[in-house]
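Input sequence (224 aa), recorded before submission:
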Amino acid sequence: MKKKIEINTTKTYSLEEAVKLLPEISTSKFAGSVDIDIVLNLKEKQKKEIVRGGVTLPFSMGDSKKVAVICEEKDEKMATEAGADMAGLKVVDAILGGDMSFDVIIATPTMMGQIGKVAKILGPKGLMPNPKNGTVTMDVTKAVQSFKAGRLNFKSVPDQGAIRLKVAKVDMPSENIQENIVALLKAVHNEAKKLSSNPFKKVTLSPTMGAGLKLDVNDIIKYV
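Predicted structure, token format:
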């Protein structure tokens, strides 16, 4: 039986300390995920703006993403050869028919009119293709391969200025967990610094089941 680790809720941890503690504080009987909660240091008016972007994590979490590409017929073969699970106008038909099993939806710029047909369905699910996170592109091959390899999109919650994501698995080596977190923090910092020179207000790491660890913001800044 795993020894219970007491967490000091008033303490802030360095990133190195936190990633080493995560497996110890995880209470699940399975290899849970490492979740990160980033509260951005934004003024009230700025919280209405959405901070978004994407990053390819150095280490895969082992999840197989289902990727669909809305493209012209001439690009279908290229998309499927790159690893897309579905490609072409049939993606639009599938969505209209109730198929929402896709994790990522990519579109070529020429198909924005078709995307409009399913915008009200994709928007609330956070699946609307957007050039800012690499899901509207002419380079279909690169986009499909990057998402299949572990590219992660992030988007702040409107009016909250917060980003919440799964960034690693608890059973990954601590150095791999740390590298994934650093990669994400760098990407978020790069986008959020347009609104704030010191964009991190609060960052918390937690396993799927277990206590949260508040990171020392002054410590994580040195990584970005």
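Checked by second reader. Strands lie at 33-40, 52-56, 67-70, 86-87, 104-107, 151-155, 162-169, 200-207, 213-214.
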